[in-house]
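Hi W., the adenosine monophosphate complex you wanted:
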Amino acid sequence: MTKFTDLGLDPKVLSAVSEAGYETPTPIQAGAIPPALQGRDVLGIAQTGTGKTASFVLPMITMLSKGRARARMPRSLVLAPTRELAAQVAENFDTYAKHTKLTKALLIGGVSFKEQDMLIDRGVDVLIATPGRLLDHFERGKLPLTGVQIMVVDEADRMLDMGFIPDIERIFQMTPFTRQTLFFSATMAPEIERITNTFLSNPVKIEVARAATTGENIEQGVIMFRASRKDKQASEKRALLRALIDAEGDALTNAIVFCNRKTEVDIVAKSLTKYGYDAAPIHGDLDQSQRTRTLESFREGKLRFLIASDVAARGLDVPSVSHVFNYDVPSHAEDYVHRIGRTGRAGRKGKTFMICVPHDEKNLADIETLVNRPIPRVDSPLLGAAPAQDAPADVAEVAEKPAPKSSSRSRSSSSRSKKTAPTPEALPKAAPAKQAEPRSDSRKPHSADKGRSGPVVGMGDHMPAFLTRTFKAPAD
Ligand code: AMP
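Structure:
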């Protein structure tokens, strides 16, 4: 088996790697580091979780250690699609370069130009940037890229999704023709292929298996969910999410819940919080300092549930996420691979559940085609239980866009009166999915079911399970 010491890395880098606790290079590291050190262009087809960040950071540090920084002339450039991902590369750089004197600047939005300009003026070895911010600096005339010897493009497929490809092409053209390029993408869409053909010179291609298609360490499941009524889909879906979470018990240490839309991210985060779950949202509309704080507390284990959109969460390295929930089926099949890749990282075990409503079945089929295997169907932990949904108060408050303070105050008296009803124990504590059987026990309907008490008059507390089932597909 290849060892880090076989790869030709600088001894200072090797000590930092061993201090970080890593002994054996991952396949992308073993494949990419030697050709990168020989000055070859590298095309790495790998997703996050495979150790790809170190596969470019380690050789970069080794190569840069041989020279010195020049004022205003960064010697290397790493482009990442999101601020979080760029910050993560910067953290990796700090970890592995700690025994060297190399310097870096992180050019991302949300940080003042002045601070960043000062760093660049002093001269940095490594510039880590998002494409938009880098071009902003360049257009201010403050950033010559003619000294760039090594350029890294990370998560190129995400850059493509975000519309950054023209920016990337521009940046390529601003750097010297003789630069070395290390280019990483989880997939090779035709547009990515075109870019690599244009800007990479005879690259060494390293492709590592997708964690999602081969990762036996990730247990996957999908719940085919049909709401009791179409207008109740949203609240019943939130109840299902809580039931799934509860059913996992202590096995769930922390989780990322992915939603397709930012508004949904906010709604789900607020709803979970309301039900006593420790949750916070992260998406592109939140300001940077809040995103950073949320992410930090999630990383440090202070926050248990991160509710996220794809863009915000792409590539985030949170080493020990026990669970990923796909609250929605992603509309781009590849996002499924990225989402579930947040768990089961670096060989750990992980578990993922996805909720699929009838409308999403086509997208589910696309995912199964992409990963080339069926995703096991899992029974809803609510199967047979009284259809659960958010309490009326929760729906009323949560489903709204954040209202101006004054109006929320004017609403508060009515919402308070609603809350005097016994607070719903969010849901019947769910049995593990596999054991869930239709139940006909005499569970007391919780307050969320109050609106339904009409139809069961005369039955006392007992509501037979069949009454709660929908047999006819609601019209779409
Ligand atoms: P990445 O694909 O760069 O996001 O890395 C995924 C995770 O793997 C990170 O938490 C790294 O710290 C970790 N990692 C990187 N290299 C190794 C290695 N050689 N052995 C074990 N874990 C690693």
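Residues 22, 24-26, 29, 48-54, 317, 319, 345-346 surround adenosine monophosphate (CB under 6 Å).

W.
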